[in-house]
Structure formats: structure tokens, C-alpha cells
Design brief:
The protein is mainly α and about 110 residues long. It has one domain: Orthogonal Bundle (434 Repressor (Amino-terminal Domain)), CATH 1.10.260.40. Helices cover about 65% and strands about 0% of the residues. Helix 4 packs across helix 6.
């Protein structure tokens, strides 16, 4: 029975989806755009922190000791499972020898 279901799925025609078009259409909605940009900035920050840690050739465990936060907190941040509280984030940033900069985005 299960084998027949797999065969059916393989024979189903799939419709191509233009993700870029869908996203561009959704971005016309101001509320969607606001949250999309917010999340994009969070992911950008995480990517920068991971890249910096790897550039410095330190492990999550080493960073956790330097920053005085748990290795699990760093792992959750890097795996995009959790955005930490600002004090924890600042400890991680400072542990990497970096700083956060605030930039006005709405003028």
C-alpha cells in the first residue's frame, strides 16, 4: 500500500513556484515588510557573529568561557533557535571583541 502511494507522488506533476515574485508581492504590504526586515536584520546579525567567531578560530565552548554565557546559549543563537536577551547578546558580542552599532533606519 505504501509503495503505491510513493509511486503516485512520483507521478504527480508539480507546479513551479516563483518564490521571488511571491516575496515581492508580499513585501508590498507594509506590515509584512516591517516584520520581514526585522527578521532579516536578526539573521544578518547572527551570520556576522558566527563568521566572526570562525574567523577568530574559537569554538562555541571557548566563546562561552570568554563571554561568561553557556555554550548552549551560543549554540541556540547560532542555530537560529533563539534570540537571547540583550545582556546575553552583548556578552557574546564583547566576548568576540566586537561592538553593536545603532543606526537610524527611519529618517
Amino acid at each position: 500500500m505504501q509503495r503505491d502511494a510513493k509511486k503516485e507522488v512520483r507521478n504527480m506533476p508539480f507546479e513551479k513556484i516563483d518564490i521571488e515574485k511571491i516575496l515581492n508581492d508580499e513585501l508590498k504590504d507594509p506590515e509584512f515588510r516591517f516584520y520581514y526586515e526585522k527578521i532579516s536584520r536578526e539573521y544578518d546579525l547572527i551570520e556576522q557573529l558566527v563568521a566572526l567567531r570562525k574567523k577568530k578560530k574559537i569554538t562555541q565552548t571557548q566563546l562561552s568561557k570568554i563571554a561568561n554565557v553557556s555554550q548552549q546559549a551560543i549554540s541556540r543563537l547560532e542555530n537560529e533557535k533563539h534570540i537571547p536577551k540583550i545582556d546575553t547578546l552583548l556578552k557574546i558580542v564583547h566576548g568576540l571583541g566586537a561592538e553593536l552599532t545603532v543606526t537610524e533606519i527611519f529618517k
